[in-house]
Structures are given as C-alpha cells and as structure tokens.
Amino acid sequence: MKPIVEIKDLSKNYFNKRALDNINLSIQSGKVVGVLGPNGSGKTTLIKILAGLLRQSKGEVLIDGHEVGVYTKSIVSYLPDRNFLYNWMSIQDACDFYKDFYRDFDETRFKNLLDFMKLERSMKVTSLSKGMHEKLNLSLVLSRDAKLYVLDEPIAGVDPVARDQILDAIINNYNENSSMLITTHLVRDMENLFDDVVFLKDGRIVLEGNAEALREEKSKQIDDIYKEIFGE
Ligand SMILES: Nc1ncnc2c1ncn2[C@@H]1O[C@H](COP(=O)(O)OP(=O)(O)OP(=O)(O)O)[C@@H](O)[C@H]1O
User: Fold this and answer.
1) Which residues form the ABC transporter domain (predicted)?
2) Pocket test for ligand 1, best of 11, 17, 184 (most atoms within 8 A of CB)
3) Ligand 1 in reach of 16 Cβ (< 6 A)
4) How many domains is the chain partitioned into structurally?
5) How many A from CA of 125 to the centre of ligand 1?
6) Among 37, 186, 219, 232, which residue is least crowded by beta carbons within 10 Å?
7) Best of 13, 43, 49, 152 to mutate for ligand 1, by most ligand atoms within 8 A of CB?
8) ipTM above 0.90, yes or no
C-alpha cells in the first residue's frame, strides 16, 4: 500500500540553526507513529512542515502522494502545541469556527467527545484550565474526518486524570483508515498507543521501527530505550 507520508532528505534551517537534518521517513496508512525526542530535537518543526505552516529548506515531503499545499491541508488535521482559539470564543463558537473551516468536521463526533471530556458548549475559552483547553483542542481536531492527524504534544502540561482521558479519546476515535503522527517526550504514558516509533535527536532520526519489535529486540520498554538514548 502507498504510504500516507513520504519524507525524503528533509532539512530545515532557521537562519544558521539546523532544526532537521536529512530526515527520511515513510508512514504507512493505518498506523499510529510516535515521534519521540526531548525539547529542541525538532519535533514541532517536523509537524509544522507536515501541517503546511513551515516550508522545508531542502528535501521532499509528500502526503497522500501530494506536495504540501491546499490539498494536503484539507486531509491533515493538526493539533498545535499551544492554544489556537480566540479568547472571545465559547466552545460553541469554536465548534462553528471549525465547521465553517473544515468540510470534514463531524459535529456528532464532536458532541460525543465533549460529553466524554465533560465539557459544555456554553463554556468560555478564557475560563478553561490548561487540561480543559487541551481536551477541547483535541476534540476539535479529532472531529475532523482526516486522513492524517498530526498531534503535537497532546498531553504536555495536563494532570494524570486528564491525560488518561485524552489518551482514551485518541484511542476511541482513531479509525484504521487514517494515520496519526504524535510527538511526545512523555513516552511512558503514551507508548502503548504507538505502532511505530521514531527517535529524534538534534534534528536527526537516531532509531526507528515497529514498537513491539524494538521492545523484543532490546528486551526493554520504549520508555527505557528513550532514557538510554537521551540519557534521562
Ligand atoms: N523560529 C525559530 N527560529 C530559530 N530557531 C528555532 C525556531 N523554532 C525552533 N528553533 C530551533 O530549532 C530546534 C528545534 O526546535 P523544535 O521546536 O522543532 O523542537 P521540539 O522538539 O519541538 O522541542 P519542544 O519539545 O521544546 O517543543 C531548536 O533548537 C529550536 O531552538
């Protein structure tokens, strides 16, 4: 089957800082891929390139066989690593905003996600805690019927209960015709979600593979492999 993402010799420089250095990566349809690395390893840069917010300095990125552009933006649902809603909005406004922007937004799914997250439409964005923000943002992003979901640090900065809810929402709403790329440095909490993992260090892929195969090969959890690589 054709990969949903094909990345060839991808590099990204910010002035004289090289954030991504010759990345080669294929993501198969139907897979959940974890991109693992500490702060500054290049995770957000990679995600932003896939989401069409940043342009690479070198190399090729194809999503569903297309260069990043209008078409790929219509099939990629992107969760940024920070809040992206306006302060004047209520949750209902955020829903309307998404519905106007994305034809693939499924309002029934959004309603079910809100119920699951225990959020109400009348709540104001400014009144939400960090964890509630994350839950709302994720609910919006997962309610799109996208071919590829790219989630940047979906559980960073939220408490353990909210974390579990967020992970359950991802698992329950994942459909096997789509793919997901999720960045995190909270490996222990997320590793069971991943089919494949990619370890990113200083903008380079230092190890990648099927999560189960890596566990067997190294007789270690992915979290322990992460600690070994990054010396945490
Ligand atoms: N706009 C920018 N201008 C200059 N350097 C940048 C810019 N954005 C990122 N960088 C640098 O590029 C490198 C990779 O950053 P990136 O944000 O992609 O890493 P990350 O793995 O997502 O880190 P974090 O977990 O802290 O978000 C870092 O060294 C960072 O300082």
Assistant:
1) 5-227
2) 17
3) no
4) 1
5) 27
6) 219
7) 43
8) yes
Tokens representing residue 204 in the block: 């380079």
Tokens, residue 16: 């004289």
The whole domain housing 76 covers 3-231
Copy the structure tokens of residue 68: 């990043």
Residue 42 near ligand 1, beta carbon < 6 Å: yes
Cα of 105 vs centre of ligand 1, distance in Å, is 30
Of 36, 61, 50, nearest in space to 153 by CA: 36
Q: How many residues does the chain have?
A: 232
Half-sphere exposure of 36 (CA within 13 A, CB side): 29
Per-residue pLDDT of the chain (232 residues; tens, 9 = 90+): 789 999 999 999 999 899 999 999 999 999 999 999 999 999 999 999 999 999 999 999 999 999 999 999 999 999 998 888 888 999 999 999 999 999 999 999 999 999 999 999 999 999 998 889 999 999 999 999 999 999 999 998 788 888 999 999 999 888 888 999 999 999 999 999 999 999 999 999 999 999 999 999 999 999 999 999 998 6
